[in-house]
Amino acid sequence: MAETTSEYEPVSSGRDIQDLLDVLSEPGGASLMLDKPGGQPLPVLLMDVRVDEALILDISAIREVAVGLKRGLGFRLLGQARSKLVRTPVLNIAQAYELEGRLLCEVPYPEQLEVLQRRDNFRAELNMSMEATVLLGKAQDREPLQGVLKNLSLEGALVALPLGSGAVLAAASSVIPLKLIFPNGSQLEVSGALRHDQSDHDRQVMLAGFEFIGCSPEQERQLWFFVREIEREAARRSRESASEAGAAKEPSPLFQSSERKPVRAASHQNEYATPMARRLSRLAAYLDNQLFALKQGRNLDSTQLSRHADRLLALLDEDREAVLFALVCMQHESLLVQHGLAVAVRLADIAGQHSMPRDLRKALLACAMVHDLGKALLPDDLRKAASLDQAQYRALQVHVESVMRSLAECNWLSRAVIQAVVGGANERLDGSGYPRGVKSEQLHELTRLMAVVDVVDAMGRERPDRAAWAIDAIYKYLLEQPQLFDQRWVQRYVRHFGVVPIGTLVRYAGGELAWVLRVDAQGQPSRVLLTEHIAAPEPKTLGAMLEGRALAQLGRPTEKLVVPVSD
């Protein structure tokens, strides 16, 4: 699309024109822009510069526009030189011909060129009515993460992502493939490195700033075109909204909808099986971002940790059964986040039965939520190892100190609670645990409780060195290991949550499968939700709710099942 020339400065010196054209004649140095609405940079090769006579162009790659050019359609040549954007005046073909299978054309030598100082740091802002999509990553095991483009420059972009994107970004490599997609279907693939991020928990978004890495000249030209079109369209819409007088400008073709298929949403934007699970997903999104913050070398946000601990404790006090069942509906979250939520909820729940002050329960819950996030900092080969030698085992222990150090600025948390929960989760009564290897007489009462709650959930999840255990096998193991686990807390745990805890998938004698929603005084199911699948709960897989006589007809469960979990 034709642009106003007021922003460009003319170059009339013959020497300067020749120097600039020499740069455009380098491989990939020039693009062709048709002088009509909707024009975009097209690939062209400036084959020869005959000073004061003609320019010879190779338009073999764009034969589809050759007919229009031969009929007199004007165009400009675009390029970059010495940190400036360069373009010719509108040109017309003098003649076109085939030579050795290539389509060449000749245009008059320009009497002047136009240059615009490149504003590398200028960012074109997209206003609320302008939409453009950014897809991040090309992992084969998940859909690309989808975001919304907020601003764009030649150097990078600001992208709004769902708040729960932290785990995906934390697992990504240092350079991430980005695909920019505009409403008219225009696309550009570039590589970017994340340089900064900011979470907006009220709007449930994460603003991520990316720096483009290794852009080719063609990618830079395309980026500059996008930047200019965004800036021009934003100005046009601003003038229209202000009802300014004057001739209306043509809308940018970038933001004219096409008939292309809609972009698929990011993989983590899923339906949840219950209303409570949807509410709990906001806490999961927060932990995702904290996980990412740790990987970026930042401390955990003290204020946000306090706020989300309050929210989770309020949910637990509002409807503990719904929260306990919601824990098994978090299968779309990362395993570290699932584990942190589960341990936090169960630790605070059992602590609430022992007349513990609310502030202490909140502190326990907060520490438990983040206690294992430091594992995201470990190398993949260490986290995924099926067995560890002594050196690897020592390296594994670093994750504990990583979280404790990141909590240093959380002044509302007691150092004793941090040490007991975060520092004590992996300690054992016989001194075989880590990181300090202390023995029973030195272990705080909260540490003894935390160790039980943590290991029950951990053993119920698959690891590289073993399959997940069923709950009855976990209970049996703990009760047979008095040298490792405080038996008082093991027995209290079993009594409190039941022999068939809420969130267990059970099978009945008739083959019926059901999720446990409530347990009676004997720890047996008193309310269940039928399902036909041995898989984590999804809205479409859940059936009728049974309790009372209808449930009694099924008898007692004959099997407690392990549900496959994937990260």
From TrEMBL:
<dbReference type="Pfam" id="PF07238">
    <property type="entry name" value="PilZ"/>
</dbReference>
<dbReference type="InterPro" id="IPR052020">
    <property type="entry name" value="Cyclic_di-GMP/3'3'-cGAMP_PDE"/>
</dbReference>
<dbReference type="GO" id="GO:0008081">
    <property type="term" value="F:phosphoric diester hydrolase activity"/>
</dbReference>
<protein>
    <submittedName>
        <fullName>HD domain-containing protein</fullName>
    </submittedName>
</protein>
<dbReference type="Pfam" id="PF13487">
    <property type="entry name" value="HD_5"/>
</dbReference>
<dbReference type="InterPro" id="IPR037522">
    <property type="entry name" value="HD_GYP_dom"/>
</dbReference>
<feature type="region of interest" description="Disordered">
    <location>
        <begin position="238"/>
        <end position="271"/>
    </location>
</feature>
<dbReference type="InterPro" id="IPR009875">
    <property type="entry name" value="PilZ_domain"/>
</dbReference>
<feature type="domain" description="HD-GYP">
    <location>
        <begin position="316"/>
        <end position="510"/>
    </location>
</feature>
<dbReference type="GO" id="GO:0035438">
    <property type="term" value="F:cyclic-di-GMP binding"/>
</dbReference>
<dbReference type="InterPro" id="IPR003607">
    <property type="entry name" value="HD/PDEase_dom"/>
</dbReference>
